[in-house]
Specification:
It holds the Pfam family CarboxypepD_reg. It is built from four helices and 47 strands. By secondary structure, the chain is mainly β. It has two domains: 117 residues, Immunoglobulins (Immunoglobulin-like, Sandwich), CATH 2.60.40; 682 residues, TonB-dependent receptor, beta-barrel domain (Maltoporin, Chain A). It has a 22-stranded antiparallel barrel. It is globular. The two termini are 30 Å apart.
C-alpha cells in the first residue's frame, strides 16, 4: 500500500510538471471605460465558452480598467463584463487558434444601469442562492445580511443551519458538520470557532457553500456535510481592519464579554493579516434527571442539577501571510495560538427510593473542575499556475498541537433518610491529554478542451494522542485508585488519493464523477491494562453529481456519495469517567467507524426556490448507549454502534418579500428517521417523524435602523436510542451604523421565550432515562465595532485546503 501511494504521488507531480511543457498561449488584453471614456476600475472580466456559457478563466481589471488575461486553449469564446452600476454585457464570439493565440480588445465601453444607479443606496435584502452540481452557494456580499453583522450571524441564518450557544452546528437537523474557511479547517473547538466568527465582520464574507454531499476532493470523514465560508480577498492596498467589543448577560447572574481587533495589510507582492480575540465566556445549565429501574423491585432516581462555567482567554491569535514569488507562483503560512482557562461546577441533589414520594436515600454531590487548554496550529502552502490553460498545483502541510490539562474534585454526602445517618465520600481526578496532528497534501487541477476538468490529489496524515487519566480517593489524603486509573495512547495513520472529472455530457447536462481511496491504520493501547486494539481498513468512496438544466428557470440536481465517520479519539479511551456516585461514562476501544450512503435529488426554480429529496442509509451508527444496572441503580454511558439507520427527508427553501423593506428567507425540513441495533440491553428500535421550520426576517427601518428576527421550530426527533421532544427559538436584533458607516452598534436578545430546552429520553425494557436541561441560551447583548481602512483596491489569490482529523479530537 505504501508503494501504491508513492507511485500515485510521483505520478501526480510528473503530470503537473509535464503540463508546463505545453504550448505557451497568448494574452487577452483591453480596457473598460464608461460612455464618456472614463476608466471603469475593478470590472470583472470572465472568459466563457461560446455556445455552452461555461466559465473558462477570467480576471478583475485594475483601478484604471485595464485587464490582462492569459488566453485559454484554441476554441470559440466570449468576454462577459460586469461592474457595479453598469449593465452586464458580452462581446461577440471570437476564435483562438495556434495562428492567433491572443487578442487585444482595445476599449470596451460599459453602459450605465439606470435602475441600479437610481437605487445605488439600497443593498440587496437577501442573499442570492445558486445551486451548483455538488453544492448550494449562498452569496452574502453586498446584502443587508452582511451589513453590521458578524460572520457568525450570517452562518447561523444560512438555510437549514442552526448554531447553538456553544457553537455546535446542525445542518438540516443533523449534527457533525465540518466548517472551513476558504476550504481550510480552523482547528478550533466549537466554542472557539464561534468566538472567532463573532470577531469577524460579515462584510469579509463572499459566500457560504453548503455541501451536503461533498465530492471526492474532500475527506470522506463526516456524514452531515460541509459549510465552507469563502472570504473576500484583501482588496485594499495598505492598512485596514476593525476593533470591536461586546457584552452579554444570560439572566442567571452571569456576565460575559469579548473584545479584539483584526488587521490586514497588503503591499505589492505580499499581504498579511492578524486577528486578536480576548473573551470571558459564561454559561451553565439547570437540569432534572429522572430514572426508573425495573428489576426485582422498582427503584426511582430523581436528581436536580445546576451547573456553571466560566471560560477566560487572553487574546487568541491567528495570523498569516502570502508572498507572490512570481505572477504564477505564491507561498504562504497561517498560524494560530489559543490559551484558555476554564472553571466549572456541577451541583446535584439526588433522591432514591421505591416510590417518588417516599425516597430512602439522599445524596448531595458537588463537583468542581479546573482546566487549561492550549492549541497551536500551523499551515504552510504553495500555489502554482503551471501553464496558460489554467493548470494549478497546490501543496499544503499542516501541524496541530493540543494540550488539555484538568483537575476535578467530587464531594459526596450520603444520608439514609430512614435511619437519619450521614456518610461522606470525597474523590478527585487528574487528566492530561496531548494530541498531535501532521498532514500533507497535494492537489492538481487540469482544465481540458470542451469545458472539461480533471482533478486529482494525494494526502497523508498522522495523529498521536496521549491520555493520562488518574482517579483518587480523597477522604483523608489523595490515594490513587488503580481500578479507575488509565493511561491510554492512540496512533492513527491515513493515506488517501482521489481523482475526479467534470464536464458537460450534453448542452443541458453537467456531470461530475469522482473516486476517493482512504487507507486507515490505528493502534489504541491501554498501558494500565496492557491491552492493545489494532485496526486497518481500506475503503473506496465514489461520488456522482448530475446537474440537469430543464429550462432557463428550472433545473434538477442528482447526487450520490459514500461517507464515513471515524470515532472521536476520546471515545476509544476505556477510562471510567465519574459524574456522580450513580452515573459514569466510559470509552469503547472496540468502537467501529460509521458508514453512510447519501442520495439527493434537488429541484431548483429561478435559482431562488429549492426542494430537495434526501435519503441516507447508515451502518454501524456511532451513538451514546446508556447501560442500565437495576441492581445498584447505576447508569453507565458509553459510545457504541447501532446496526443500521434510515433517514428519508425533504428540504424546501422559499424566500418571500413582504414589502420593499421587509424580506424573509424560509426553510422547512421534514424527515423520517429509524435506528435499530443490538445493545447491551437487547435489540432496540427507535423511529420518529421529524420536522423543522426556520424563518429569518430582515426589516429596513427608518433612520437607517435594521431589525432582524430569527424564528425556528424543531419537532420531535429520534437520535440513536433517544427520543427528543420539540423545541423552539426566537431571537431579535436591532442594528445601526454611525460615523459614515464606520461604527456599527447592535443590540440582540436570544431565545426570548426560553424554548430551546433539551428534553430527551429512552425506555429500555421499562427502564426509563429522562433528561430535561436548559443551557441558558436566553441572553441580551450589546456589540460595538469600528472599521478603518485606506488604500486602493487590488486583486488577490485564494487557496483551498482542508484537514478533517481535528474534528474528531473534540
Amino acid at each position: 500500500m505504501k508503494n501504491v501511494f508513492s507511485f500515485l504521488f510521483f505520478a501526480l507531480l510528473l503530470l503537473g510538471a509535464r503540463t508546463g511543457w505545453g504550448q505557451e498561449l497568448g494574452l487577452l488584453t483591453g480596457k473598460t471605460t464608461d460612455d464618456k471614456g472614463a476608466p471603469v476600475g475593478f470590472t470583472t472580466v470572465a472568459v466563457v465558452q461560446a455556445g455552452t456559457g461555461a466559465n473558462v478563466t477570467g480576471a478583475v481589471a485594475d483601478e484604471k480598467g485595464q485587464f490582462r488575461i492569459q488566453a485559454p486553449a484554441a476554441g470559440s469564446y466570449i468576454l462577459r463584463l460586469s461592474s457595479l452600476g453598469f449593465i452586464t454585457q458580452e462581446t461577440p464570439a471570437f476564435e483562438l487558434s495556434a495562428a492567433s493565440p491572443g487578442r487585444d480588445f482595445g476599449n470596451l465601453v460599459l453602459r450605465p444601469d439606470a435602475k441600479q444607479l437610481a437605487e445605488v443606496n439600497v443593498v440587496g435584502m437577501r442573499p442570492t442562492i445558486v445551486q451548483e452540481a455538488d453544492r448550494m452557494v449562498v452569496s452574502v456580499a453586498g446584502t443587508a445580511m452582511a451589513t453590521n453583522n458578524t460572520a457568525f450571524d450570517v452562518l447561523a441564518k444560512a438555510p437549514g443551519v442552526f448554531v447553538d450557544q456553544e457553537g455546535n452546528i446542525q445542518l438540516n437537523g443533523k449534527s457533525g458538520v465540518t466548517v472551513m474557511l476558504d476550504g481550510r479547517l480552523t482547528y478550533l473547538s466549537a466554542r472557539e470557532l464561534r468566538s472567532m466568527l463573532e470577531g469577524m465582520p460579515a462584510e469579509n464574507l463572499k459566500n457560504i457553500e453548503i455541501i451536503t454531499n461533498p465530492p471526492a476532493k474532500y475527506d470522506a470523514e463526516g456524514s452531515a456535510g460541509i459549510l465552507n465560508l469563502n472570504l473576500k480577498q484583501n482588496t485594499q492596498r495598505g492598512l485596514n481592519g476593525s476593533v470591536y467589543a461586546s457584552g452579554n448577560y444570560n439572566f442567571f447572574q452571569q456576565f460575559g464579554h469579548t473584545y479584539g481587533a483584526s488587521l490586514n495589510i497588503k503591499q505589492e507582492k505580499w499581504n498579511g493579516f492578524i486577528n486578536l480575540d480576548a473573551s470571558r465566556r459564561v454559561g451553565g445549565r439547570n437540569a432534572t434527571f429522572t430514572r426508573v429501574f425495573r428489576g426485582e423491585k422498582t427503584t426511582y432516581f430523581n436528581q436536580n442539577a445546576v451547573g456553571n462555567f466560566t471560560s477566560v482567554a487572553p487574546p487568541v491569535v491567528r495570523l498569516g501571510a502570502d508572498y507572490n514569488l512570481s505572477k504564477n507562483h505564491s507561498v504562504g503560512f497561517v498560524a494560530g495560538y489559543t490559551y484558555r482557562t476554564n472553571e466549572s461546577d456541577f451541583l446535584t441533589e439526588t433522591f432514591i427510593g421505591p416510590a417518588v414520594e417516599t425516597p430512602t436515600v439522599f445524596i448531595d454531590a458537588d463537583n468542581f473542575g479546573r482546566r487549561t487548554y492550549t492549541n497551536r496550529t500551523g499551515n504552510l502552502h504553495y500555489t502554482g499556475k503551471l501553464d496558460t490553460a489554467g493548470t494549478i498545483l497546490t501543496a499544503d502541510f499542516d501541524y496541530v498541537d493540543i494540550r488539555d490539562r484538568g483537575n476535578s474534585d467530587f464531594f459526596n454526602t450520603f444520608r439514609n433518610l430512614i435511619q437519619g445517618k450521614d456518610s461522606v465520600n470525597n474523590e478527585a481526578t487528574s487528566t492530561l491529554t496531548n494530541l498531535g496532528i501532521y498532514a500533507a497534501k497535494a492537489d492538481f487541477t487540469r482544465p481540458m478542451r470542451g469545458g472539461h476538468k480533471l482533478e486529482a490529489g494525494v494526502k497523508v496524515s498522522q495523529v498521536t494522542a496521549d491520555n493520562d487519566s488518574r482517579f483518587f480517593f480523597n477522604n483523608d489524603a489523595l490515594v490513587l485508585d488503580p481500578l479507575r486509573t488509565n493511561y491510554f495512547t492512540y496512533r492513527e495513520n491515513i493515506q488517501a488519493a482521489y481523482a475526479s472529472w467534470s464536464g458537460k455530457a450534453s448542452k443541458r447536462l453537467q456531470v461530475q464523477a469522482g473516486l476517493r481511496l482512504e487507507n486507515t491504520r490505528s493502534v489504541g493501547r491501554s498501558i494500565t491494562t496492557d491491552s492493545t486494539t489494532r485496526r486497518q481498513y481500506l475503503n473506496l468512496f465514489p461520488t456522482l453529481f448530475i446537474q440537469q438544466e430543464v429550462s432557463e428557470n428550472y433545473g434538477i440536481n442528482y447526487s450520490y456519495s459514500r461517507r464515513l465517520t471515524r470515532p472521536n479519539y476520546g471515545s476509544l479511551n476505556p477510562f471510567l469517567f465519574y459524574r456522580d456516585p450513580y452515573t459514569f461514562e466510559q470509552g469503547n476501544p472496540g468502537l467501529r467507524p460509521q458508514y453512510t450512503h447519501a442520495f439527493r435529488i434537488a429541484h431548483n426554480y429561478k435559482k431562488v426556490y429549492s426542494l430537495a429529496f434526501t435519503y441516507d442509509h447508515q451502518t454501524d451508527i456511532i451513538t451514546e448507549l446508556p447501560i442500565i444496572n437495576a441492581a445498584d441503580t447505576s447508569t453507565l454511558y458509553t459510545t457504541g454502534n447501532l446496526d443500521r439507520g434510515h433517514i428519508v427527508g425533504l428540504t424546501g427553501i422559499a424566500p418571500y418579500k413582504f414589502t420593499k423593506w421587509w424580506d424573509s428567507q424560509n426553510t422547512v425540513v421534514v424527515s423520517y428517521r429509524k435506528f435499530s441495533g443490538t445493545t447491551p440491553n437487547g435489540f432496540l428500535t427507535n423511529e420518529q417523524l421529524y420536522y423543522m421550520l426556520q424563518s429569518n426576517h430582515t426589516l429596513l427601518l427608518p433612520r437607517k435602523f435594521r431589525a432582524e428576527i430569527e424564528a425556528r421550530y424543531l419537532g420531535p426527533t429520534a437520535s440513536g436510542l433517544y427520543q427528543i421532544e420539540p423545541m423552539h427559538w426566537v431571537g431579535v436584533a436591532l442594528k445601526r451604523s454611525f460615523l459614515n458607516d464606520k461604527l456599527d452598534v447592535g443590540v440582540n436578545v436570544n431565545d426570548i421565550f426560553k424554548g430551546y430546552r433539551y428534553r430527551f429520553s429512552t425506555n429500555i425494557g421499562g427502564n426509563v432515562n429522562d433528561f430535561d436541561q436548559y443551557f441558558r441560551f436566553r441572553s441580551v447583548g450589546l456589540a460595538l465595532r469600528y472599521n478603518f481602512s485606506r488604500g486602493a483596491k487590488v486583486d488577490t489569490k485564494r487557496r483551498n485546503n482542508n484537514l478533517e482529523e481535528l474534528n474528531r479530537a473534540n
